[in-house]
User: Which sequence fits this backbone?
């Protein structure tokens, strides 16, 4: 089991620069990949997407690729010949307009700065192998974090599944008593109303039989037990768990709602409330599972 929350980072040297790759993710129903990288390397996005898909099937995944240089590479470099030519053009323009021209330090800085030589980044072809290797390293760290959080989620799911199972078994034990309790209540109401009817009266037996049929939750209990077995097996399986888990929990929720609507009993109603509360907690957690 893997969590959809994860982070991984890796660095490498590349042509005098430092290549930094960071991968992060949060939960999302499908795989939603975004990539931030130098404009010159946009052609590498398909390769990046292919690598990410080997490590993540769901989640909002963001890959950030940055190239930074050392202090020396960040020093300003100018094209002196181009700067001198630009200054001569400014002087000629001032002479033409008969404006006194005396270069100031500020003007020299502006002219020189306009002729700055940009540090050229490695091309996408030159960077591809290094980016691929560094991304793979970051993705391994990313996957390891997802797996570790997945282990914690698994422990929580097992505990909560046991709690759900206990509530269902308590309801299963209580359910057979409901028709008998109803019979006693029915006879008491009849006596209180001054209507003495025998237990074997056809009308009493018919009413009790109808009630017993309406409140019978045997099928729902059986299906719930089956769903719990499927959920337990899914938690132990390899591969994607989240979508299947969400579907099983949805089916469990339907059975619980049916029990709540059929079982005309206060004790069972309380058990259904506890089931719904715990089930909602499990649903919130399964949303974080790949």
Assistant:
């Amino acid at each position: 089991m893997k969590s959809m929350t994860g982070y991984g980072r890796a660095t490498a040297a590349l042509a005098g620069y430092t290549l930094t790759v960071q991968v992060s993710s949060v939960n999302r129903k499908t795989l939603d990949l975004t990539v931030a990288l130098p404009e010159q390397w946009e052609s590498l996005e398909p390769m990046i997407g292919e690598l990410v898909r080997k490590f993540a099937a769901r989640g909002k995944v963001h890959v950030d690729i940055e190239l930074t240089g050392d202090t020396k590479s960040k020093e300003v470099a100018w094209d002196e010949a181009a700067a001198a030519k630009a200054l001569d053009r400014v002087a000629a323009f001032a002479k033409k307009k008969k404006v006194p021209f005396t270069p100031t330090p500020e003007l020299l800085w502006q002219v020189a700065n306009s002729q700055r030589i940009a540090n050229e980044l490695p091309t996408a072809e030159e960077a591809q192998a290094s980016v691929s290797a560094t991304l793979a390293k970051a993705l391994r760290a990313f996957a390891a974090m997802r797996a570790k959080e997945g282990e914690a989620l698994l422990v929580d799911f097992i505990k909560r599944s046991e709690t759900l199972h206990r509530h269902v078994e308590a309801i299963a034990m209580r359910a057979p008593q409901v028709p008998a309790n109803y019979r006693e209540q029915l006879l008491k109401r009849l006596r209180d109303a001054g209507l003495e009817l025998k237990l074997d009266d056809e009308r009493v037996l018919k009413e009790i039989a109808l009630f017993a049929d309406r409140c019978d939750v045997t099928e729902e209990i059986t299906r719930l037990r089956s769903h719990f077995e499927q959920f337990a097996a899914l938690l132990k399986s390899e591969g994607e768990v989240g979508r299947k888990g969400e579907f099983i929990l949805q089916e469990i929720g339907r059975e619980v709602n049916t029990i709540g609507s059929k079982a005309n009993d206060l004790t069972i109603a309380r058990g259904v409330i506890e089931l719904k509360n715990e089930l909602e907690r499990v649903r919130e957690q399964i949303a974080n599972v790949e």
Q: What stands out?
A: The CA atoms of residues 220 and 255 lie 6 Å apart. The chain has three domains: 6-72+121-146, 78-114, 147-286.
